[in-house]
Amino acid sequence: MKFATACIHVGQDPDPITGATIPPVHFTTTYTLDAPGEGKGFVYSRSANPTRIALEACLTTLENASAASSFSSGCAATMAVLSTLRPGDSIVAYADLYGGTYRIFENISRPNGINTKYAQGTGVADFEQLIDSTTKLIWLETPTNPLLRLIDIEAVSQLAKSRGIAVAVDNTFATPALQQPLSLGADYIVHSTTKYIAGHSDVIGGAVVVKDASLIEPILFYLKSAGGCPGPMDCYMTQRGIKTLPLRMRAHCANARAIAEYLSGRKGIASVLYPTLPDHPDRALAEKQMCGGGGIVSLLLDGGFDATSRFCKSTKLFSLAESLGGVESLINHPARMTHASIPKNVRDAQGITDNLVRLSVGIEDVDDLKEDLDKALAAI
What we know:
The chain has 380 residues and is α/β, with parallel strands linked by helices. Helix content is 36%, strand content 15%.
């Protein structure tokens, strides 16, 4: 079954009782058993729910995986993977990370005895030099948030495999429509399904998808024990969004590339970051590893925070808001918004400066988006 067909049909068999083409949403917390300990595979909806199982089946197929577990948010999914580590273990990650992930690493995992070491470069050697006997996990974002660097998943996974280390890839920016990390050697995929997977900025969710079915058991145990499970309506809305994922990602990629090209060299803009632009340092890897540049464009503006703030406040179609990946366009100031939990000296060293802006380019008419950005540039 091809990708676009799977988006629509996997987990969406007609209801066997009524014939309803769209399966019902199972609003129930508990299930009636035939006898003590004997039922139809469901006992309590924190452990499993038919609507959630349908979503997980779809995600498993789309990522060419063995199993998946859905969560109430991307952060909950991240915590589930980290729950497989123990005090004394360590993580190696590239320094450019989503602020929420950095917050988990530094303010939750580190006080509990799990340290993270941050590579300052994207090459395999940059990761290799940080690996020691305590390293149990390599955590990758690619493209990274918000600087849009790429990391060679296949090469890093080969390194990790040679050392007995697991690899987790946050595939939120690319989605399985553009990138298949498990096929490149990763062990775990983490999603904030809030973003492109659901795609309409109306439901929060997360997922962990695994290459080896045995890896899902501790994830499911964590979910059952710690909670963090999504409700059935959240699962239904996420799967409804998935049905248009291939169409939306094509539109996001086309609009984002057009915006990136349009803004390159414009007065008031110091540089434009987008994976498939000719001057991007990882363009060759983007063409090898992805099938599209994604929907995020980052900008470095001329001037400091005041000018950048005016730019952010002057757009109309680009809403100044957290998050990304919806059909509508958003503008974000990482240093004061999504990455504010990272200390300023760490942000500045990484390049998340006060003149950095992240655009989540939606699927509106691209000419309207260009006009909106032109007006914002005029304001500075």
